[in-house]
Amino acid sequence: MSISADRIAVSTWSLHRLLGTTYPHDLSTHEVGPMQETFGEGSESLLGLPSVLANHGYHRLEIVSFHMRSRDPIYLGELRDQLRMAKVRLQTLLIDAGDITDPVHGARDQRWIAGWIETANELGAENARIIAGKQLPTPEALERSVTALRQLADGNSGSSVRLVTENWFDLLSEPAHVNYVLDRLEGRIGLLGDFGNWRGPDKYSNLEAIFGRAELCHAKASFTDGELDTTDYAQCVSLAESAGYTGPYTLIFDNDTPSEWHGLAAERDFILSH
Which of the listed CATH numbers 3.10.310.10, 3.40.50.150, 3.30.70.2120, 3.20.20.150 matches domain 5-272? Predict the structure, then answer.
């Protein structure tokens, strides 16, 4: 059975050269930081992106929090309107900072993340991705993660925004720790599985061990001299499907070549023909 086009999404991370500017996070404040031309001047704004995406045939979007220039209600309303008019679903707000397992700043970071979950609700996002923690997976750090994630879920109770975390950073660097945290949370936090976060000889078996419970997927591919590594990508997509994954594939592209739109098209076409 082929994978349908309505399961394809795009992250703003994959279009960071098109957008150019970012707004770095300061976890001590809820204010958005000053604009930086991190990837150059850029040629498109986040408000203009939904219609451009739709013109390229994409109708699901994930927004990285540092691509948002404002959290003002008026700006959020404008972004919602642009998504609605372009018929693009805001699949996920990726809350891209904070360490709720930090023994010193964990509580501060948890409050900061809670504020961004509120923003996800205001935007009408379907999901909000939270980093489970960046510390080494000691029993104490894992417990801090479970406690903080449970509290964040409590604060989001009754919302239509589904909270998810990702197999990312030291804390969730292997299947046992991913499964431990998710099991302790008893379904209150979902999983976003990322093809590109794990490497090494056990990459495929490790991904296979978690994708049966994944609700979202960052489908990152490797490129060499502008050419898609089809062997790796085929294995990743195959293991996800074999594990029972039925969610969307969010295309992740961050190579210098080919261009962003060409790289995304190569990933999309490969998945759809898989």
Answer: 3.20.20.150
Taking the C-alpha atoms of residue 162 and residue 205, their distance in angstroms, rounded to an integer, is 27
Contact 213, 175 (CB under 8 A): no
pLDDT at position 1 is 52
Using CA atoms, how far apart are residues 188 and 174, in angstroms rounded to an integer?
20
At 92, list the tokens.
């996920």
Mean pLDDT of the chain, nearest integer: 97
- DSSP code of residue 165: E
Contact 129, 94 (CB under 8 A): yes
> Where in the chain are the domains?
5-272
The DSSP symbol for 99 reads -
Span 158-168, pLDDT tens digits: 999 999 999 99
- Phi and psi at residue 195, in whole multiples of 5°? -60, -35
